[in-house]
Amino acid sequence: MVKEAVEEAKKAAAEQTEADEKAAEETGDERDNEVESEADAATKEDAESDEIADEAEAKNSDESKSEKKIFGKKNKKDKKDEKIEELTDRLTRQMAEFDNFRKRTEKEKSQMYEIGAKDIIDKILPVVDNFERGLNGVKEEEKNDPFIQGMEMVYKQLMTTLEGVGVKPIEAVGQEFNPDFHNAVMHVEDENFGENIVAEEFQKGYMYRDSVVRHSMVKVAN
């Protein structure tokens, strides 16, 4: 009885072991199939990704070539346009140079005219001085003489003409001494005048426009 029970237990254990091994094999086959399926799916997905990447790269390459082609056409200038730009630039430069030359020439002419005018005025001033000396030496009873009156008319006309071209006398007596306009040849102490004041004028000075033609020769007080 005991022997038969042991044999049956061994047989049952062997059957159970065989069943477990068969179940394990079936489970392993299923897992292998699943792994293979997953691997196939991953391989397929990678292939699709590679294909998409290749298409995108090809598209970008085509677009890059197209852009290069477009920009290449845009940047490339026609020889006529280049020639027109070159001539335009040259003409602009020549016009600027001519404008500068014209301004410089006008300035030089103006300076030459002013220098020439000052030179002529400087030569006329001694004539004015002689008129003034002569008229100042006329006695009161001789002022009605027609000759004296004629000389006064000539003097007035001369001074009006000089004033019309921009010549005017420099104020001196009673003014503060200014070396830009006055030439001090004598100094005197006089309580009737303030400090550094022109007390007397020996020779009248003149200006032409804004420049001095001849300084006033003066005596300065205090």
What are the SSEs and their pairings?
Elements: H1 2-75, H2 79-136, H3 146-164, E1 167-169, E2 182-188, E3 197-203, E4 206-208, E5 211-214, E6 216-221
Parallel strand pairs: 2-6
Antiparallel strand pairs: 1-4, 3-6, 4-5
Describe it.
The model has no long low-confidence stretch (mean pLDDT 79). 68% of the residues lie in helices and 14% in strands. Strands 1-4-5 form a three-stranded antiparallel β-sheet. The chain is an alpha+beta fold and 222 residues long. Helix 2 (79-136) packs antiparallel against helix 3 (146-164). The chain has a domain at 168-222: Roll (Nucleotide Exchange Factor Grpe, Chain A, domain 2). The chain has three helices and six strands. It is elongated, with a radius of gyration of 59 Å.
Question: What is the gist of this entry?
Answer:
By secondary structure, the chain is of the alpha+beta class.
Which key terms come to mind for this protein?
3 helices, 3-stranded mixed sheet, alpha+beta, about 220 residues, about 70% helix
